[in-house]
Amino acid sequence: MSRAETAGRVSPLWTFGLFRSELLTTFRRWRTLALLGVLAAVPVLVGVAVRIETGGDGSAGGGGGGGPAFISQITNNGLFLVFTALAVTLPFFLPMAVGVVAGDAVAGEANAGTLRYLLVAPAGRSRLLLTKYATVMAFCLVATLVVALSALITGALLFPLGDPTTISGTRIGFAEGLVRALLIALVVALSLIGVAALGLFVSTLTNSGIAAMATTVGLLTTVQILDQLPQLHALHPYLFSHHWLSFADLMREPVYWDDLTKNLGLQALYAAVFGSAAWARFTARDITA
Amino acid sequence: MGEASATERDGTRPDGTRPDGTRPDGPHAGPVADAGGGDGDGGGVIVTRALTKRYRGGQLAVDGLHLTVPAGSVFGFLGPNGSGKTTTIRMLMGLIEPTSGTAHVLGRPMPRSARAVLPHVGALIEGPALYGFLSGRDNLLRYDAADPTADPRTRHARVAAALDRVGLTAAAGKKAKAYSLGMKQRLGLAAALLRPRRLLVLDEPTNGLDPQGMREIRTLVRELASDGTTVFLSSHLLDEIEQVCTHAAVMARGRLLTQGPVAELSAGARGRLAVTTPDAADAARVLKEQGVADVVVAEERVSGEVPERDLAEVNAALVAAGVRVRGFGVERASLEDAFVALTGEGFDVAG
C-alpha cells in the first residue's frame, strides 16, 4: 500500500515545501502587490520632483540645503537616487509595509479560519511560525530591492550615471558604486527584521488581522516619535529605529562600521526577544478561531 | 430534510454490514497503530476520559467527557449549538489544550502526538476556511503542502482526485471567493480527503448544502465508511444522524448524556401507535376508550402511546365503531424521541 510507505516518512525538505507555499500565498495577495507598488512609486516620485526642481538650469545642486541624504547629488549621478529613495522609505514606508505583512501573518490566517486547517494538516506550530517569520524576512528583502531597483531605473532614465563620490569625498568606480548600493539595500532589509519580529509577536496575540496590523504600525510610529524626544535620550539606543540611517556609513571611504554593527546587533536582539515571545505565545495558545 | 423516508429509517441503514464497529482494524493498521501500543479501550479510534475544558472566562464548555468511538463506526455526535461539540472536536484535533482529562486519537494522546496522528485524520471543523484569492485547486495544494508526510510528487494527482471526488473538477480553477457556500463546503471536504485517512472528523458537513448536496455528502460518507474509514460526524440534524450513523453520542450543556449504537438509543424510547383515518375525531374517542394515552390528532392522523392490550383488539374496536381505518401500525421511535426522553425537552435546532 502506498499509504503505508508514505505516511510515516517525513522528508527533511518538507519545511521548504511549506515555505514555498507560504511565499506563493503571500506574494499572490493583492495587498502585498499593492504595498510593493506603492514602494516602487516612491523613487519615481522623488526622481521626478528633483528633475522638475532642477530642470533646465542644470545647476549641480551644490552642497547645502535640507532634505533627505544624498538628494543634492542626484542631478549629477542617478545612482544616488537609490540611496535617497532608501533614506526616504526606511523611516516609514518600508517598516509600515513590513508591519502590515508581519501583523497579518498569523492573525490574518486565524481570522480567515485557515490557521486551524494548517495546524490540523498538521503544519506544526513551531515550523509554521518559523515559516511565517522567514516569509516576512523575505518580504523585507523583496520590498527593499523593489525600492532600490525602481530608484536605479528611474535614476538612469532621468539623470546621468557616473562614478559616484563617497561622503568622504573620494571617488569610487561605478561598478563599486553598484556593489555598495546592493550592500546598502541588504543592510536596509536587515534593519527591518526587528519590526518584523515585533509584528509577528503582535500577530500571535489576536485573531484579527486588522488589529494586529494597526497595532504594529502604531507601535512603529510611537517608537519613531519617542526617538525624536531629547528628554528620552537614555532610551534612544534601545529603540529599533535609532540606528536605521546608519546605512549611509557604507558610502564612507573607508566604511565606518560602528553604528552599522550597533544597528544589526539591535535588530538581532529584537528578533530574539520578540521571536521567542511569539513562539511561547503561539505554541501554548488555544486556537479558537 | 424531506428525504427522511420511512423505508430508509426502518431498515436500509447499513447496520448489518458493520455490527457495532467490532470489525478488525486489519487493513488500516498503519504506523500509528503499530507504535501506539495497546489501545486500552478495545480499539477505540477516539477515547476520552474525564475530558474537561474550562475557558479563561470560567465558562465550563466540556465537563468530564467519557467518549469512546469504535473503529469502523460512523459516529454521530449530536447536540444543540453551544453544547460543547466543537470544543470537544478542537481538543481532539490538538487545537485546544484540555483543562483536565485525557484524549486519545488512534491510540495516541492528543495534543502531544498531533504530528504523528493528524496525517491520518481528515477534518472539517466549523465549516470550511479558504483563501479567497486562490483558486480551489491552489487552496488544496497549500493545505497539502502543510502536511509534512504528504508526498510532493503525488500532490497534483491527489488534489485532482480529491476535487473529482467532491465534484469540483470543473470549478477547480475558479477563485475560491467566487464559490457558493455549498462549493466551499465541498472544497473543505476535499481537503479532508487529500490522502487516505483512518479517521474523518466532520463538523456539520451538510451545513449550507441544498437537499441534493446533502444527499451527495451522505452517499460519500457511506462510501468512505464502507472502505473502513471511521467517520466522526457532528450534527444538530437528527435525521442526518439517523440516516448515516451506526453509533451516536448526545451532548447537552457540556455533558455527555448517552452514547451507543443508534438502534439501541432509539430502542430506549417507546414507539407510538398511529392510525390514519378520515374519521379522526371518532378514532381519537375510541382509542381513549381502549386505554391509549396521550392521543394526538393531526388532520387524518391520530397517534398515541402504545397500549398494553393486544393491538388487534384495538383495531377491531375502531372498525366496529365505524371508523374507516386506512392505516394502522406502530411507528418505531426516532432518535428525536430518544433525545426528548433523555433531556425532557425538545431538540433546539434553531439553537
From TrEMBL, chain A:
Keywords: Membrane, Transmembrane, Transmembrane helix. The chain crosses the membrane at residues 30-50, 70-94, 133-159, 179-202. The keyword Transmembrane applies. PANTHER family: INTEGRAL MEMBRANE PROTEIN-RELATED, MEMBRANE PROTEIN. This is ABC-2 type transport system permease protein. It comes from Streptomyces calvus.
TrEMBL record, chain B:
It comes from the Bacteria. Residues 1-26 have a biased composition (Basic and acidic residues). GO terms for molecular function: ATP binding; ATP hydrolysis activity. Residues 46-278 form the ABC transporter domain. SUPFAM superfamilies: P-loop containing nucleoside triphosphate hydrolases. Keywords: ATP-binding, Nucleotide-binding, Transport. Residues 1-41 are annotated as: Disordered. PROSITE patterns: ABC_TRANSPORTER_1, ABC_TRANSPORTER_2. Belongs to the ABC transporter superfamily. This is ABC-2 type transport system ATP-binding protein. It comes from Streptomyces calvus. The lineage of its organism: Bacteria, Bacillati, Actinomycetota, Actinomycetes, Kitasatosporales.
